[in-house]
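User: Can you recover a sequence for this backbone? Please restate the input before giving your answer.

Assistant: Of course. Working from this structure:
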């Protein structure tokens, strides 16, 4: 799934880099400069500042079923403005919470003799609490703290097969910090630093410590058309995973120049762009393009959605074409506002 020699593949818990939400996925994953609704809890906590309603998003995806029919990815996010909390009306800003869950399906454990000894399901889980607030008319900022739990195998299996005293479970924590800046009334810039936290290990002191997929994301959102009848928005994001930078930099010498280093690191950058057309706050159509050259994920994405009285949204996003193998990969999201 990730073939690169640096970047995400050198990190643990890479599920944190999977883009949630059918709406952003339909636009190639570009959303940092827009960050509307409960999905702001993942893409840019600074976007929470403009949320004045309680909102909740539920997303399900059968994740890369061509690889394993038992894999699926779930996302839940909620926003809670302080204006809706008794005694906190004067504080300002909006709280958010999101939960990410990925399971790769059932795994069969086999001992040294080739005998099956157990069947279990691996999974990853992250829970984040975040907050966004308005600094002035143009600038909003946000931050989040998350707990990360990764289950690869039961402890007794690791001890029996690998003869390690630790277990096949790892925990860590991380913080996100972000901002959303209105360059012009219809042009926004978003920047987000994600997954800044300690390395994770699955075998206690005996194991190798693997870095989290620490990322920087930056993007623009430009409302090309905005009136009572329709809205057309163009978005562009770049995302970069920090893992592997030091090892590449240490190679600089006669045979590997600084220019080579910059070229290789730029290849590691994920590029996203997309368009969203919304008609009468009822019907949306989306198209995007995603480039991850090092990971061999390049192609178009598509999506669309229906809205009902600014209270309910049903969206679908498809990114099957970015993969080098045949698959049917899509997201379905339901968003509610109260």
């Amino acid at each position: 799934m990730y073939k690169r020699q640096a970047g995400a593949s050198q990190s643990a818990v890479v599920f944190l880099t999977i883009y949630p939400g059918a709406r952003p996925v339909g636009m190639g994953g570009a959303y940092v400069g827009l960050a509307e609704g409960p999905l702001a809890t993942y893409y840019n906590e600074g976007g929470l500042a403009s949320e004045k309603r309680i909102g909740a998003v539920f997303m399900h995806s059968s994740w890369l079923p061509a690889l394993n029919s038992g894999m699926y990815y779930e996302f839940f996010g909620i926003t809670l403005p302080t204006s809706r909390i008794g005694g906190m009306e004067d504080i300002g800003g909006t709280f958010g919470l999101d939960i990410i869950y990925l399971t790769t399906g059932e795994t069969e454990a086999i001992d040294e003799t080739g005998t099956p000894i157990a069947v279990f399901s691996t999974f990853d889980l992250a829970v984040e609490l975040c907050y966004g607030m308005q600094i002035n008319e143009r600038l909003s900022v946000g931050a989040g703290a998350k707990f990360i739990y990764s289950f690869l195998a039961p402890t007794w299996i690791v001890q029996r097969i690998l003869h390690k005293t630790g277990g096949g479970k790892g925990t860590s924590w991380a913080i996100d910090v972000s901002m959303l800046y209105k360059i012009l009334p219809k042009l926004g810039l978003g920047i987000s630093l994600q997954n800044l936290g300690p390395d994770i290990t699955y075998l206690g002191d005996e194991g190798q410590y693997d870095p989290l997929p620490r990322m920087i994301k930056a993007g623009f959102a430009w409302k090309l058309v905005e009136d009572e009848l329709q809205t057309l928005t163009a978005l562009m994001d770049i995302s970069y995973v920090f893992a592997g930078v030091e090892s590449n930099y240490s190679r600089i010498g006669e045979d590997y120049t600084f220019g080579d280093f910059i070229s290789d690191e730029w290849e590691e950058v994920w590029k996203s762009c997309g368009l969203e057309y919304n008609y009468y706050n009822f019907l949306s159509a989306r198209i995007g393009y995603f480039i991850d050259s090092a990971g061999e994920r390049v192609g178009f994405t598509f999506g669309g959605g229906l809205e009902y009285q600014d209270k309910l949204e049903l969206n679908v996003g498809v990114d099957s074409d970015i993969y080098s193998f045949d698959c049917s990969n899509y997201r379905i999201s339901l968003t509610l506002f109260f």
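That completes the design. The longest strand covers residues 116-134.
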